[in-house]
Amino acid sequence: MAKVPRIKLGSQGLEVSAQGLGCMSMSIGYGPPKPEPDSINLIHQAIEAGVTFLDTSDVYGPHTNEILLGKALTGGTREKVELATKFGIKIENGAYKFYGDPAYVRDACEASLKRLKIDCIDLYYQHRTDTRVPIEITMGELKKLVEEGKIKYVGLSEASASTIRRAHAVHPITAVQLEWSLWSRDVEDEIIPTCRELGIGIVAYSPLGRGFLSSGPKVVENLSEGDFRQILPRFQAENLEHNKTLYERICEIAANKGCTPAQLALAWVHHQGKDVVPIPGTTKIENLKQNIGALSVSLTPQDLKELESISSDITPKGDRYMDGFPTYLTSDTPPLSSWKA
């Protein structure tokens, strides 16, 4: 595997690999958890190839993904990586709840440090915005954690443009994590310009459309029990027939470029700017190698124009998430004046 280059993520000093590794699928979301030795081996192979920006969250499992990374990063491996984790989502009585109050922020951070077996988190994101707590209150506690050396950099995930601005005014935001791919482009209207105006790095999760841009409609044929794509709107039969047109067009261009559809889709994200780091997830060494190969795919202005026209012409059918799971489109926080501790 070719070595992965390094870039500056945001303007606060964090340097990471130009492509990261999303670790969620090893523990949750895509069927039963993968065998621990296999996942640890994949993480080590990624690091050896230069993919050192690792992404997890306390809700993945919950907790088991952080525990897995804690086991993978022993024996001097921790010093080789940039580790990102998240707080803010709890599963209570089968439902997702969102928290951003100071006591919760601190407790969540301490618990993640313990599970990860580390002294300091490189990049700590608020996973989803708590619409009951002004973002200034949440950021105030995160700022304290930075000052105490428990975290180095602060991030937001799926935050609205106004929330990003308000948070950044309290303490610099290093990165915003968001879904960005050839079939998820609504972030381009407000979120991306806001990040760039403020010097905030962009971390693109699900850059392969949760496997759809790699395999097309056939990705749903062999989903195992517990794979949450079974309930995602874009993967439902009534939407797949429409959405497969986008995949077919991507396949045509990929064939002409001599690369896979996945590599083309990832290369498109890389070509969106030097401030963008995609974090594709995988549980297979073969896919890890293929994803790294995307860094070698050079897209011409004509290629980019053609891909632009395809994703403009074919708007995916179906929401990104199931009903009841908020995204940045609904995550503004109340005014600071409303806060009562």
TrEMBL record:
Every NADP-dependent oxidoreductase domain range: 20-310
GO molecular function, one term: oxidoreductase activity
InterPro entries: AKR (IPR020471), Aldo-Keto_reductase (IPR050791), NAD(P)_OxRdtase_dom_sf (IPR036812), NADP_OxRdtase_dom (IPR023210)
Keyword terms: NADP, Oxidoreductase
Species of origin: Artemisia annua (Sweet wormwood)
Cellular component annotations (GO), alphabetically ordered: cytoplasm
Keyword NADP appears in the UniProt entry: yes
Pfam families per UniProt: Aldo_ket_red
Transmembrane portions of the chain: none
Coiled coil as UniProt keyword: no
Cleavable signal peptide: none
Name of the protein this chain belongs to: NAD(P)-linked oxidoreductase superfamily protein
